[in-house]
Amino acid sequence: MPDIFRITLRPLGLLTLGMALSACSFEPPIHLPAGPGSAGYTAGAAPHKTVASMGKGGAAQTLSYGKDMSTVWWRLFHSPRLDALVSLAMQHNPTLDLARAQLHQAEAVASINASVFYPQVSASLGAQRAKSVTQSGGGKTNAYTYSLFTGGVGVSYYPDIFGVNRMVYRGSEAQVEYQRYELEAAGLTLSGNVVTAAIGEAAVRAQIDATRRIIAQERHLLKLTETQYHVGSVSQLNVINQQAQLASSEALLPPLMQQLAVYRHEMAILVGRYPSQWHDKPFTLDELHLPKHIPVSLPSTLVKQRPDVQAAERQIRYAAALVGESRAEFFPALQLTGSFGYSSNTTNLLFNPVSTIWSLAASLVQPIFEGGKLDAQEREAKAVFDGEFANYRMTVLGAFQQVANALRAVQNDADALAAEQSALDSSRQALQMAEYDYRTGETDYLALLAAEVQYNDAKIAYLKAQAQRYQDTASLLLALGGGWWHQPVKGVPASMIHAKAGHSS
Q1: What distance in Å separates the CA atoms of residue 101 and residue 89, rounded to the nearest whole number?
Q2: Which of 241, 278, 287, 503 is least enclosed by beta carbons within 10 angstroms?
Q3: How many other CB atoms are found less than 10 A from the CB of residue 144?
């Protein structure tokens, strides 16, 4: 490099370094709101153990506060088929493909913004053949043809004196982290949708089976009533009432079949299939085991375990970088350029020292008047920052609300299932006694019909309460973050890693 380069660049470099080191950050301070601390999640005493009842899904559940999930949440149901469904969805659902693409896009943008920290170097090589005309005294014209060969290297560099480029890069880094947590949240939401659809399908199937048994029983009672009518023991009104009750129960089947179809179609889409391509065997509640021990994270750690909260925090940091960038725009921007090369009319002299050409330039641009644009940009950035801060608060409050609701739901669901179990047992016993008395003529048909309707309602209510307990347990595990942080590979959702080890059905 010629001495002129060294002489000129050395003071400029020292000046740039000193200004960069002395430049302050224009980002606003970020003070995240504190959580509820020792106040816990719920108003009043938090539930620690639920009541137990007989039957499937009636086990007592212990809520272990301050304990972390040891695995991703759906594995707590200990269902190989459920694991396989979630794995299949993680591999083929287009929602995750979209989230991955958005993460890759954000990473590419960050790489683009990082390139400004380095000198931009380009090389050029050119050849030109031209004809030129000159005029001499007396109006005489001379024409001559010549060749020109050039080659050289150009360098440009933007010293980030007041941190504009640094703010842009920080914003892009925050967007990368935001998209990474959005991918985590998408995987968590997807797993929740799969489990919800599986439980919903199993619950509807149980209701369909129960309704069909009820219909079979009512047909049996109809035959009994018709027999008693023919022998003169009851009136025709009893037969008509029983026929109406049978028709009423049969009318319950089509809506249940529609709900089942909806769940089946939803599951097909979740695993990336068309509804016509989904032929997986029916899912039942017998394949699920209600978690008996539920780890409940402390409020102080919930915000770290919720990917949506972490994503909202990254948006605050992105907005803070926007504020810093808008403030730095008020200060000068420095550009350094230089080139070194050769130019000759013949190729044999192109790289001769006499053919050397070079240039060195520095420009400093200071905004003076832009019609209020810079002020408006700063106000806009501050408004974005305030909006993202408010969004973070809403996200955190929503997270605590979801956990509080789910904790109470788990407690109340156990009480409801125990009550429904008691009601079902009583109504079953009452129906058996009413049917026996009706056969022997000790009671009238209205008593039998009332016992029949009561039992049918109790059976369906029990099945709904049973399924609701599974659904709300899943909601609590999801609200607590779902255990997505159990990931051996940085930046890859644990749910996706486990999905790769799963089995397709």
Answers
A1: 17
A2: 503
A3: 9
Q: Burial code of 412-428, b = ≥16 C-beta within 10 A, e = fewer?
A: ebbebbbebbebbeebe
What's the DSSP call for residue 49?
A: B
Rounded CA-CA distance 358/343 in Å is 10
Indicate the length of the chain as a whole number: 505
Q: How many Å apart are CA 470 and CA 474, to the nearest integer?
A: 6
Q: Can you read off the two tokens belonging to residue 497? A: 């890693």
C-alpha dist (Å) from residue 167 to 133, 171, 176, 220, 368: 54, 6, 14, 78, 22
d(CA 284, CA 310): 35
**Residue 246: burial class (beta carbons within 10 Å; 0-12, 13-18, 19+):** middle
CB contact burial 452-489 (16+ within 10 A = b; e otherwise): bebbbebbbbbbbbbbbbbbbbbbbbbbbbbbbebbee
pLDDT for 139 equals: 65
363 sits in which H/E element: strand 356-365
CA of residue 400 relative to chain centroid, distance: 17
Strands 141-157 and 120-135: antiparallel
Q: What is the pLDDT of residue 137?
A: 63
Cα–Cα dist 222/107, whole Å: 70
- Radius of gyration for the alpha carbons in the chain, expressed in angstroms and rounded: 38
153 pLDDT above the threshold of 60:
yes
Cβ-based neighbours of 97, under 8 Å, separated by 6 or more? none
Q: Helix 236-250 crosses helix 445-479 at what angle (to 10 degrees)?
A: 10
CA–CA distance, 357 with 338 (Å, rounded to integer): 11
User: In this structure, what token pair is assigned to residue 145?
Assistant: 């043809």
Instruction: Specify the pairing of strand 141-157 against strand 333-344.
Output: antiparallel
Q: Using CA atoms of 449, 451, 456, 457 in order, give the dihedral in degrees to the nearest 10.
A: 110
Contact 191, 74 (CB under 8 A): yes
Q: 108 is written with which tokens?
A: 């590419």
Listed range (25-39, 49-63, 406-420) with the worst mean pLDDT: 25-39
- Please give the distance of CA 32 from its chain centroid, rounded to a whole number: 22
Residue 210 CA to residue 437 CA, distance in Å, equals 24
Report which of 1, 466, 494 is spatially closest to residue 207, judged by C-alpha positions: 466
Q: What angle do CA 131, 137, 138 make, to 5 degrees?
A: 105
Residue indicated by tokens 């490099």: 1
The strand pair at 356-365 and 333-344 is best described as: antiparallel
Mean pLDDT of 205-229: 89
Q: Identify any residues that bridge with 141 across adjacent strands, giving them in sequence order.
A: 135
Residues 289, 77 contacting (CB under 8 angstroms) = yes
Structure tokens of 367?
Answer: 């905004």
